[in-house]
Predict the structure.
Amino acid sequence: MAARNTYVRPMAGWYRRNPRFTAYMLREGSAVFLALYALILLWGLTALAGGAESYQGWLDFLSSPLSVLLHLLILAAAGYHTYTWFQVAPKATPPLALGSRRLPDQAIIMGGYASFALVSLVILIVAW
Amino acid sequence: MSDSGQEIEIEVLRYHPEHDKQPRYQTFRVPFAHDTSVLQGLQYIKDHLDGSLTFRWSCRMAICGSCGKMVNGEPKLSCHTFLRDYHPGKLRVEPLSHFPIVRDLVVDQTDFLEKLEAIKPYIIRKREKPVSAGVYHQRPNELARYQQFSQCINCMLCYAACPQYGLNNDFYGPGILALLHRYNSDSRDEGKDQRMPIVHAEDGVWSCTLVGYCSEVCPKNVDPAAAVNRNKVNSTLDYFLRFLSPRGAS
């Protein structure tokens, strides 16, 4: 067959073409805030190792208005990321049978939330 | 097509490989009734307005998988999508995204077909049973393991829904990997060893980032996203189990 004179459409800006793709990019983008939070914690750990004065510096940063605003942003992003994480969980879960019937997707999602709540509760009790 | 007096504007992507440097859009006014599909709208254009409009179709009842198009940016079987749902607005019909355009609404399927061949989409036996030995038996729960994934009609809507395939055509993509999973999950099949290298490859399941849109657009509820992502689990198990057994998990 002779080479066809086909037209390949460009992909530039693909994530703006479909609301579904935009939601996907927001989902992936929210992970950046989680990484940022991990870095803040890591910074706190190194500050702690650096002595009382550097640790106080980190604590001072935490109570600054900028930090509070940042943490609110991170909390919102983490909440959204957690929601999307549980929503896609059934796709990666091997089919679980309950007797002869397959466990419905919604049960896997709710199971995720239940274990999330349980683990949060345990951490709260231990840390309090 | 009965004429109920209503008309809708259909904007169609046109591309002639010998005359056009890039695609353009052409608008047609098409009469429609309650049961007029987008495909019938295109057929009306071809029969009455412009006989040069080129598009694929065959069965007209969502079985053959030939008539996939982008309708207002969403991958749809055009026989299974109705003009009434877009009225009083207009609709834009384009060829399936992420594939090269051959002409008008026809895309080049070569890449898809080559990948389909590569996964050996048939039951492989280490030793074939003679016909006289009878059929291969299968229990209902063994059938249930792959039945959903065997409903694929190769319509390629999931490829048009997959930005990872659009960005990297080497990626095997949702539909093909779902079919691979269908044969690997079949209790009669013994060809898993031959297919797993495709699962493990960079362009196998690991190029998927679980956008999940493929499963939403699938007209047969195959759920390719689930097939691909369960194989990430299989691929990971294979990777770690090879430390325990020289033959891996398979």
Q: What stands out?
A: The CA atoms of residues 65 and 155 of chain B lie 4 Å apart. Residues 224-241 of chain B form the longest helix (18 residues). Chain B has a mean pLDDT of 93. The beta strands of chain B are 6-14, 24-32, 68-71, 74-77, 91-94, 101-103, 106-107.
